[in-house]
Amino acid sequence: MAAKKETTEARVRAAAPVRGSRGKTREGAFFPVSPPRAGLPHDCAEALSEIKQRIQAERQRVVMAANAAMVLFYWDIGRLILERQERAGWGAKVIDRLSAGLRAAYPDMKGLSPRNLKYMRAFTAAWPDRKIVQEPLARIPWYHHIALMEKCRTPEERIWYVRQSADRRRVRVA
Questions:
Q1: Can you tell me the distance from the alpha carbon of 114 to that of 67, in angstroms, rounded to the nearest whole number?
Q2: What's 37's DSSP letter?
Q3: Who contacts 91 (Cβ-Cβ below 8 Å, separation ≥6)?
Q4: Looking at 31-35, 48-52, 97-101, which range is the least confident one?
Q5: Mean pLDDT of the 107-111 span
Q6: Assigned domain for 29 exists
Q7: How many domains does the chain have?
Q8: How far apart are CA 102 and CA 122, in angstroms?
Q9: Does 14 reside within a domain?
Q10: pLDDT at 15 over 60
């Protein structure tokens, strides 16, 4: 048995340089590794680069679309909370009740805490016009909105940071 294994390994070692690639052996089978990028034909390297760029762009587009949908959804929840609080009056614990009900219905979902629901309410109160929420506000992540609501006093100051952040994607709020 040992002689057979040695013969197989010798065959594999002999075949590896001919194939121009490294590989692993297992019971006489040879699994070649794809050639390095430098060994690819020119047009293949170009195609690979183009596909990688497209994947990156599509990933970014999907993330931005999901973020925009979430921000609009949070705005809608904030509007619902404001309306319920107006009808029920102060002290009705609208947020606490909604949070408890939502968390019971969706235990694996994050973002349904009373604190986050209060942020949704504050977000809607800060931006009562849904049109402005659609663009440019939907272009930045939710946690940026929370930081802006906590640190900026005026809507003009908040919108300035939103525009800078959406354009540069890395502006820090002072």
A1: 21
A2: G
A3: none
A4: 31-35
A5: 92
A6: no
A7: 1
A8: 19
A9: no
A10: no
